[in-house]
Structure formats: structure tokens, C-alpha cells
Amino acid sequence: MTQEHVTARVPTEYHVCAADDVAERDRVLIDAGGVEIGIFKVKGKFYAYENRCVHQGGPVCRGDVLGRWEEHLDEGGQVVGADFSTEHIDIACPWHGWEYDVETGKNIADPRFRLRSFDVVVRDGDIFITIP
Ligand code: FES
Questions:
Q1: 39: nearest Cα among 125, 113, 121
Q2: Which of 39, 87, 116, 132 is the most buried (most CB within 10 A)?
Q3: What is the C-alpha R_g of the chain?
Q4: Helices then strands (H, E): number in the chain?
Q5: For residue range 53-97, what is the model confidence (pLDDT) as tens digits?
């Protein structure tokens, strides 16, 4: 008979920084037990993702945070203008430009691809994330 050792992972909470230290549309990066995580602030809310792009593992959390480029069409489907959205905010991976919605972590071209996310809470003015 063999003896198996099962290691149960215990969720671990990590302190990030003061919530006021993160500017709108900016991020902070932390090492949480060997996992690099980017914590973003968009529209006053915080989102945390592993700094690993689904495409080829690039440092997605170091990419630009920008409004999604959106074209405006007339009734016939012709482009009549375009601008950066103030509603849809994305992270652009610095390696090959894959973009992810900051609020969902989903790739904007193919939502089947999404960044690994983590729970974020703000407590007494400080940000905490939990690694399950
Ligand atoms: S590794 Fe991120 S776009 Fe290729």
C-alpha cells in the first residue's frame, strides 16, 4: 500500500497598498507568494490579474491601459468616425498587443481567452488580494 500526501492549499491574503496610492487607469504590481499580480484601478474599482498573458505568457499587466478604439457606423454600415471609448477600458499586452477588458479579464477579440483573476477587497483604505 502506498501512502499519498495531499497538500491542501489554504487561501492566502496579501496586502497590496493604500487604495489612494493607485491612480485611475493605473496599476501596481506585487509578488504574492511567487505569483506576480497586477492590481488595476478603473472607474474607481480594483481588479487583479496574474501578470501572464494568455497568448504567450507576456507581462500583460505592464501594458498600456486605454479606452477601446471604437468605430461609429451610419445606418448603412459605413464608418463615420472613431474614438477611444470612455466606457470600455482595456489592457494591451506589450508583447503582441492582445487586449483584455480590465473589468472582466476577457480578451476583446475572443472572450474564450481570459486572464487569471483574483479577488480584491478594500478594507480600511487598503487593498488586499486573495490567492486561492
Ligand atoms: S504574449 Fe501577450 S500578446 Fe503575445
A1: 121
A2: 39
A3: 18
A4: 0, 9
A5: 999 999 999 999 999 999 999 999 999 999 999 999 999 999 999
- Tell me the pTM: 0.89
Res 2: pLDDT: 59
List ligand 1's pocket residues with C-beta within 6 A. 53, 55-58, 60, 93, 95-98
Residues β-bridged to residue 35: 32
Among 90, 95, 113, 114, say which to mutate for ligand 1: greatest number of ligand atoms within 8 Å of CB: 95
Burial 13-35 (b: 16+ CB within 10 A, else e): ebebeebeebeeeebbebebeee
d(CA 87, CA 74): 20
Between 2 and 16, whose confidence is greater?
Answer: 16
Specify the length of the chain in residues. Answer: 132
Residue type, 94: P
